[in-house]
Write a structure and sequence with these properties.
Blueprint: H1 3-33, H2 38-43, H3 49-59, H4 65-77, H5 91-126, H6 131-144, H7 148-162, H8 178-211, H9 215-222, H10 227-239, H11 241-264, H12 270-280, H13 283-311, H14 313-317
């Protein structure tokens, strides 16, 4: 590998590590500076001073703040995220147990949103100003004004309360059957996907409309190429860079969206565990989730950057 490229790669890796470190530091300080005492929250207001002192020693809360952070960082580097104050269970074990729920929700959300947005945006750009384009743009604006939890409430009322087709709450693991699993996640997935769909549609439609005005598209038409081939092979690829960037960035935003949606649909995912950790002042669980999400977010965005080299040969040359 050339030295210049190796230097850029090293600098990129260092910047990503600094981002993860800064996120964990700020989260640790904010969580520990919030009013309240996790020991009192766990034992209750009638706890004796002896019991409070004992549990503060067991939980390591009697040490200075920066000492606790340094010890947590050293343990995290060895894969030890600490032990929950409430359940006395390993934080990493708790995260991995709930991760499949949130991961399935995120993956299905992106798949459904992209499966709806890409053909809608391509056709709208091709028939720009037509009836379909106007309907698509109007629908996108309407969905953009609705937060995911509001869409979720509408879906629950329509498909669970009124029609009775799908369960309103709960989660069925994939091991208990694909049909039951899909029935339990389709509503929360649609609630999130309908919030992502208009964003992807409008971005890709705008880029496609500009690409279709380029000279190479006119040349392709002059050569007699089918419109479908021009749209999917020649216009879609150079128009997808903004969409890919937003999809990568939206992974982090979707994790924030799942906090509300998982609460609304009673899904035992990471978002629900995060809310419980905040209410219980379970700092180590909160910190472990933040670290896990920050690392995942950084890795996903690094993969998006690497994907540019695959889609655009000009970036490889540069």
């Amino acid at each position: 590998m050339p030295r210049g490229r190796l230097g850029r790669l090293s600098g990129r890796l260092l910047s990503l590590l600094l981002v993860v470190w800064a996120v964990t530091l700020v989260t640790f300080l904010l969580a520990n500076l919030l009013p309240g005492d996790p020991v009192l929250a766990m034992l209750g207001e009638n706890a004796t001073p002896t019991a409070i002192a004992h549990w503060r020693d067991v939980m390591g809360l009697d040490q200075p703040l920066l000492v606790r952070y340094g010890q947590w960082v050293l343990n995290a580097l060895h894969g030890d995220f600490g032990i929950s104050y409430w359940t006395r269970e390993g934080v990493l074990t708790m995260i991995l147990r709930r991760l499949p729920v949130t991961l399935e929700l995120l993956v299905l959300t992106q798949v459904i949103a992209l499966a709806l947005a890409v053909p809608c945006a391509v056709y709208s750009a091709w028939r720009r100003g037509g009836v379909f384009d106007r309907i698509a743009q109007g629908s996108s604006l309407g969905l953009l004004s609705m937060p995911p939890f509001l869409i979720g409430i509408v879906l629950i009322f329509a498909f669970s309360v009124h029609l009775g087709w799908l369960p309103a709450t709960g989660f069925v693991p994939l091991s208990e059957g694909l049909g039951a699993n899909m029935a339990s996640v389709i509503l929360p997935t649609l609630a999130l996907a309908m919030a992502e769909f208009p964003v992807y549609t409008r971005l890709l439609r705008a880029d496609m409309a500009q690409t279709l005005q380029q000279d190479f598209v006119a040349v392709a038409h002059a050569k007699g190429m089918p419109s479908r081939r021009i749209l999917l092979r020649h216009a879609l690829r150079p128009s997808s860079f903004t969409l890919i960037t937003v999809v990568g960035v939206n992974i982090g935003r979707l994790i924030g969206g799942t906090v509300i949606v998982e609460q609304l649909f009673a899904l035992p995912g990471i978002g629900q565990m995060l809310v419980q950790a905040v209410y219980q002042q379970d700092y180590l669980v909160l910190q472990g989730i933040v670290l896990f999400v920050a690392v995942a977010f950084v890795l996903i965005n690094a993969m998006v950057d690497a994907l540019y080299f695959v889609l655009d040969p000009r970036t490889r040359h540069e």
